[in-house]
Amino acid sequence: MVDIKISGRKVSVSDALRDHVEVKIGGALKVFDIKPMSCDVVLRVDKNPSNPERKACEVTVFVRDNVVRVVATSDDMYAAIDEAAEKVTRQLRKYKTRIIDRRQRAQAAPVSAVTEENLASLIESAPEEEDDQLVREKYIDLKPMTEEEALVQTDLLGHDFFVFINATTGLTNVIYHRKNGGYGIIKPRIEENE
Protein backbone atom coordinates (compact mmCIF):
# COMPACT_ATOMS: atom_id res chain seq x y z
CA MET A 1 0.00 0.00 0.00
CA VAL A 2 1.34 3.40 -1.03
CA ASP A 3 1.26 6.24 1.48
CA ILE A 4 -1.20 8.82 0.05
CA LYS A 5 -1.34 12.21 1.78
CA ILE A 6 -4.54 14.08 0.97
CA SER A 7 -5.05 17.77 1.64
CA GLY A 8 -7.47 20.47 0.54
CA ARG A 9 -7.05 24.11 -0.44
CA LYS A 10 -10.19 26.20 -0.12
CA VAL A 11 -12.14 22.95 0.18
CA SER A 12 -12.72 20.59 3.07
CA VAL A 13 -11.86 16.99 2.30
CA SER A 14 -14.89 14.89 3.24
CA ASP A 15 -14.70 11.19 4.01
CA ALA A 16 -16.38 10.46 0.65
CA LEU A 17 -13.76 12.52 -1.24
CA ARG A 18 -10.96 10.88 0.76
CA ASP A 19 -12.32 7.40 -0.06
CA HIS A 20 -12.65 8.31 -3.75
CA VAL A 21 -9.05 9.54 -3.88
CA GLU A 22 -7.75 6.41 -2.15
CA VAL A 23 -9.65 4.11 -4.53
CA LYS A 24 -8.90 5.97 -7.78
CA ILE A 25 -5.37 7.29 -7.17
CA GLY A 26 -4.40 4.21 -5.14
CA GLY A 27 -5.54 2.02 -8.04
CA ALA A 28 -3.53 4.12 -10.50
CA LEU A 29 -0.40 3.71 -8.38
CA LYS A 30 -0.66 -0.09 -8.60
CA VAL A 31 0.55 0.20 -12.22
CA PHE A 32 4.06 0.66 -10.92
CA ASP A 33 4.52 -1.24 -7.69
CA ILE A 34 7.94 -0.15 -6.49
CA LYS A 35 9.38 0.90 -3.18
CA PRO A 36 9.87 3.59 -2.03
CA MET A 37 6.85 5.40 -3.47
CA SER A 38 4.74 8.09 -1.85
CA CYS A 39 2.01 10.34 -3.14
CA ASP A 40 0.66 13.80 -2.28
CA VAL A 41 -2.84 14.73 -3.47
CA VAL A 42 -4.09 18.30 -3.21
CA LEU A 43 -7.76 19.03 -3.91
CA ARG A 44 -8.46 22.70 -4.54
CA VAL A 45 -11.21 25.03 -5.62
CA ASP A 46 -10.23 28.17 -7.51
CA LYS A 47 -12.39 31.17 -6.65
CA ASN A 48 -12.45 32.52 -10.21
CA PRO A 49 -16.09 32.63 -11.39
CA SER A 50 -15.04 33.10 -15.05
CA ASN A 51 -13.38 29.67 -14.99
CA PRO A 52 -15.99 26.91 -15.40
CA GLU A 53 -13.46 24.22 -14.40
CA ARG A 54 -12.76 25.58 -10.96
CA LYS A 55 -12.12 22.31 -9.15
CA ALA A 56 -8.67 20.74 -9.46
CA CYS A 57 -6.85 17.63 -8.31
CA GLU A 58 -3.04 17.85 -8.18
CA VAL A 59 -1.17 14.57 -7.77
CA THR A 60 2.56 14.36 -7.08
CA VAL A 61 4.10 10.88 -6.96
CA PHE A 62 7.61 10.37 -5.63
CA VAL A 63 9.17 7.22 -7.12
CA ARG A 64 12.73 6.68 -5.90
CA ASP A 65 14.56 9.80 -7.14
CA ASN A 66 11.91 10.77 -9.70
CA VAL A 67 8.76 12.86 -9.49
CA VAL A 68 5.57 12.37 -11.50
CA ARG A 69 3.17 15.31 -11.34
CA VAL A 70 -0.26 15.71 -12.93
CA VAL A 71 -3.08 18.23 -12.58
CA ALA A 72 -6.67 17.67 -13.68
CA THR A 73 -9.50 20.21 -13.57
CA SER A 74 -13.26 19.90 -13.92
CA ASP A 75 -16.47 21.48 -12.74
CA ASP A 76 -16.92 18.39 -10.52
CA MET A 77 -14.27 17.32 -7.96
CA TYR A 78 -14.97 13.61 -8.47
CA ALA A 79 -14.45 14.00 -12.24
CA ALA A 80 -11.18 15.87 -11.60
CA ILE A 81 -9.98 13.01 -9.36
CA ASP A 82 -10.94 10.43 -12.01
CA GLU A 83 -9.08 12.35 -14.72
CA ALA A 84 -6.02 12.77 -12.49
CA ALA A 85 -6.00 9.01 -11.82
CA GLU A 86 -6.04 8.31 -15.58
CA LYS A 87 -3.16 10.76 -16.15
CA VAL A 88 -1.12 9.21 -13.32
CA THR A 89 -1.67 5.75 -14.82
CA ARG A 90 -0.46 6.95 -18.24
CA GLN A 91 2.59 8.74 -16.79
CA LEU A 92 3.61 5.75 -14.64
CA ARG A 93 3.22 3.36 -17.60
CA LYS A 94 5.37 5.71 -19.67
CA TYR A 95 7.96 5.80 -16.90
CA LYS A 96 7.89 2.00 -16.52
CA THR A 97 8.33 1.55 -20.28
CA ARG A 98 11.30 3.91 -20.32
CA ILE A 99 12.94 2.09 -17.42
CA ILE A 100 12.52 -1.25 -19.20
CA ASP A 101 13.74 0.20 -22.52
CA ARG A 102 16.78 1.73 -20.84
CA ARG A 103 17.73 -1.58 -19.30
CA GLN A 104 17.41 -3.32 -22.66
CA ARG A 105 19.54 -0.81 -24.56
CA ALA A 106 23.29 -1.00 -24.18
CA GLN A 107 23.91 2.63 -25.14
CA ALA A 108 21.73 5.69 -25.56
CA ALA A 109 21.50 7.37 -28.96
CA PRO A 110 23.87 10.34 -29.37
CA VAL A 111 22.30 13.73 -28.63
CA SER A 112 22.43 16.33 -31.39
CA ALA A 113 24.50 19.45 -30.83
CA VAL A 114 22.81 22.69 -29.83
CA THR A 115 23.20 25.54 -32.29
CA GLU A 116 22.47 29.21 -31.77
CA GLU A 117 19.50 28.83 -34.10
CA ASN A 118 18.05 25.96 -32.03
CA LEU A 119 18.54 27.90 -28.81
CA ALA A 120 17.01 31.08 -30.25
CA SER A 121 13.91 29.14 -31.31
CA LEU A 122 13.29 28.21 -27.67
CA ILE A 123 13.06 31.79 -26.48
CA GLU A 124 9.53 33.13 -26.52
CA SER A 125 8.96 36.85 -26.80
CA ALA A 126 6.94 38.27 -23.94
CA PRO A 127 4.93 41.49 -23.99
CA GLU A 128 7.25 44.47 -23.67
CA GLU A 129 5.95 45.64 -20.32
CA GLU A 130 6.82 42.25 -18.77
CA ASP A 131 10.35 41.95 -20.20
CA ASP A 132 12.09 43.52 -17.23
CA GLN A 133 9.93 42.00 -14.53
CA LEU A 134 10.93 38.87 -12.60
CA VAL A 135 7.64 37.06 -12.04
CA ARG A 136 8.79 33.86 -10.37
CA GLU A 137 11.79 32.52 -8.51
CA LYS A 138 12.26 28.80 -7.96
CA TYR A 139 14.96 26.84 -6.16
CA ILE A 140 15.81 23.30 -7.19
CA ASP A 141 17.98 20.50 -5.92
CA LEU A 142 20.43 19.49 -8.62
CA LYS A 143 21.01 15.74 -8.57
CA PRO A 144 23.61 13.83 -10.54
CA MET A 145 21.94 11.76 -13.27
CA THR A 146 22.51 10.50 -16.78
CA GLU A 147 21.11 12.31 -19.80
CA GLU A 148 18.58 9.47 -20.20
CA GLU A 149 17.39 9.86 -16.59
CA ALA A 150 17.06 13.64 -17.08
CA LEU A 151 15.00 13.03 -20.22
CA VAL A 152 12.67 10.71 -18.31
CA GLN A 153 12.35 13.28 -15.50
CA THR A 154 11.50 16.02 -18.04
CA ASP A 155 8.67 13.90 -19.44
CA LEU A 156 7.38 12.87 -16.03
CA LEU A 157 7.20 16.46 -14.81
CA GLY A 158 5.65 17.65 -18.07
CA HIS A 159 8.19 20.47 -18.37
CA ASP A 160 9.79 21.81 -21.54
CA PHE A 161 13.25 21.63 -19.97
CA PHE A 162 15.11 20.12 -17.03
CA VAL A 163 18.31 21.28 -15.27
CA PHE A 164 20.56 18.56 -13.82
CA ILE A 165 24.11 17.62 -12.91
CA ASN A 166 25.54 15.31 -15.57
CA ALA A 167 26.67 12.19 -13.68
CA THR A 168 29.45 11.58 -16.22
CA THR A 169 31.03 15.05 -16.19
CA GLY A 170 29.82 16.53 -12.90
CA LEU A 171 28.76 19.71 -14.74
CA THR A 172 25.35 21.39 -15.00
CA ASN A 173 23.37 20.54 -18.17
CA VAL A 174 19.91 21.47 -19.47
CA ILE A 175 17.83 19.03 -21.52
CA TYR A 176 14.86 20.44 -23.45
CA HIS A 177 12.04 19.57 -25.89
CA ARG A 178 12.69 20.96 -29.36
CA LYS A 179 9.78 22.69 -31.09
CA ASN A 180 10.29 20.61 -34.24
CA GLY A 181 10.41 17.34 -32.29
CA GLY A 182 13.01 15.44 -30.34
CA TYR A 183 15.22 16.72 -27.57
CA GLY A 184 18.28 18.90 -27.25
CA ILE A 185 20.87 19.34 -24.55
CA ILE A 186 22.78 22.42 -23.46
CA LYS A 187 26.25 21.78 -22.03
CA PRO A 188 29.06 24.05 -20.84
CA ARG A 189 31.72 24.58 -23.51
CA ILE A 190 34.36 22.86 -21.35
CA GLU A 191 32.55 19.55 -22.02
CA GLU A 192 33.24 19.99 -25.74
CA ASN A 193 36.88 19.00 -25.31
CA GLU A 194 36.22 16.00 -23.05
Describe the secondary-structure layout:
Elements: E1 3-9, H1 15-29, E2 37-45, E3 55-63, E4 66-74, H2 77-104, H3 116-122, E5 144-145, H4 147-157, E6 161-166, E7 172-177, E8 183-186
Parallel strand pairs: 1-2, 5-6
Antiparallel strand pairs: 2-3, 3-4, 6-7, 7-8
Helix pairs in contact: 1-2, 2-4
Question: What is the structure about, briefly put?
Answer:
The protein has 194 residues and is of the alpha/beta class. It is built from four helices and eight strands.
Principal-axes geometry comes out as globular
The secondary-structure element order is: EHEEEHHEHEEE
- Fraction of residues in H or I helices: 25-40%
- Main sheet? 4 strands, mixed
* Tally of DSSP helical segments: 4
> How confident is the prediction overall: mean pLDDT?
78
Number of E strands: 8
Strand content: 25-35%
User: Based on helices, strands and strand pairing, what is the structural class?
Assistant: alpha/beta
Separation of the first and last Cα atoms: 46 Å
Our Rg estimate from Cα atoms comes to: 19 Å
- Strand order in the largest sheet: 1-2-3-4
Low-pLDDT residue spans: 124-130
Would you kindly provide a written description of the structure presented here, covering whatever features stand out?
- The termini are far apart.
- α2 packs antiparallel against α4 (147-157).
- With 194 residues, the protein is of the alpha/beta class.
- The strands form two sheets. It has a four-stranded mixed sheet. Strands 5-6-7-8 form a four-stranded mixed sheet, covered by helices on one side.
- It has helices spanning 15-29, 77-104, 116-122, 147-157; strands at residues 3-9, 37-45, 55-63, 66-74, 144-145, 161-166, 172-177, 183-186.
- The chain contains four helices and eight strands.
